[in-house]
């Protein structure tokens, strides 16, 4: 008798869920306004972003001029700037791994179809010609630079860079 009660209870719960699920689509639903994508941030935040970007770009230019940094992407590498500069080009050439921002940019590629052949070409649009001409992918889809798989920095290297960032934050807070 107890088993029958459990089965009947289960069927009743299932039926109740089924009915509620169907009633939900029959009842008027709450409407949500679409977000205006042009207003990603409030105007004050956009102004602060513009000032910050200008400052970061100036610091990036200074690090490059001092020989403390190189870039392989077509834009500022915020991670590199935050740790006082990284020689990204040397890291790519030596196959030692790359910083997180460069690694992410490498995997932000586009596959474009070439004409009617159905063959696809991988486009690395965040890199200039001098770097992208040496980029491709292996059969597993891993990005390669000059036929060597590009990896993220080792844990040790990342920890060194984060320690350097911490030191820079301490030094800059004393100014």
Q: Which key terms come to mind for this protein?
A:
globular, two-stranded antiparallel ribbon, 175 residues, 7 helices, mainly alpha
Write a structural description:
51% of the residues lie in helices and 9% in strands. The protein has 175 residues and is mainly alpha-helical. It has a domain of 117 residues. Strands 3-4-5 form a three-stranded antiparallel sheet, with no helix packed on it. The mean pLDDT is 84.
Q: Give the strand order of the largest sheet, numbering strands 1, 2, ... along the chain.
A: 3-4-5
Q: Tell me the helix content.
A: 40-55%
Mean pLDDT: 84
How many DSSP-defined strands? 5
Major sheet size, sense and barrel closure: 3 strands, antiparallel
* Alpha carbon gap, first and last residue: 80 Å
* Uncertain runs: none
Radius of gyration (Å): 26 Å
Write the layout of secondary structure elements.
Blueprint: H1 2-26, H2 43-65, H3 78-82, H4 88-94, H5 100-106, E1 110-113, E2 120-123, H6 129-132, E3 135-137, E4 143-145, E5 148-149, H7 155-173
Antiparallel strand pairs: 1-2, 3-4, 4-5
Q: How is this structure best summarized?
A:
This protein has 175 residues and is mostly helical. It is built from seven helices and five strands; from the N terminus they run H-H-H-H-H-E-E-H-E-E-E-H. Strand 4 (143-145) and strand 5 form a beta hairpin.
